[in-house]
Amino acid sequence: ASFLALHPLRKMDVVPVSLALVAFGATATTWIVNVASHAFELYFGISGLNFRILCCIILVVIPYTGRRWTRKQATIQLELDNFAVRKTVCAKEDDRRVIYGNIAALMRETGGVEAGATMDEALESFEDLVRATLPSAMIR
User: Fold this and answer.
1) What's this model's pTM, rounded to 2 decimal places?
2) Which residues contact 122 (CB under 8 A, 6 or more apart)?
3) What pLDDT does residue 127 have?
4) Tell me: the pLDDT tens digits for 59-74?
5) Cα gap 58→73, rounded to integer Å
6) What is the DSSP letter of 116?
7) Residue 107 near residue 122 (C-beta atoms within 8 A)
8) Which residues contact 16 (CB under 8 A, 6 or more apart)?
9) CA dist 116 to 20, 51, 93, 104, 120, Å?
């Protein structure tokens, strides 16, 4: 919440955690293909295998990864469009009032709402801020 209010959006890039897994998978697949192709060339003399393995990777892994990423983007967009701070999961429900109070104080201090605004008004303003600013940062 404080990051959104205190930093301009143009300086923020959000990278989903799954992207690192995709990069690792691509690197591992490339390494396995290289090892396998060298082994097949060395032991069996089959040089065309490189091309076949590369084609399999391109025809299976890359489209799957692209579809998965596209679905993830759609899910993120839907969640942000329907964001409601009152529906968020809180690790300790006892902390929810403190968190709401901090969000309200932040919105009052940053000018998101008037100084005398109620907590509900501040939370609604925060929800509007999230819906307006985060989608463009999350989906690039």
Assistant:
1) 0.56
2) 103, 104, 105, 107, 108, 112, 113
3) 94
4) 688 888 888 888 888 8
5) 22
6) T
7) yes
8) 72, 76
9) 44, 68, 26, 11, 12
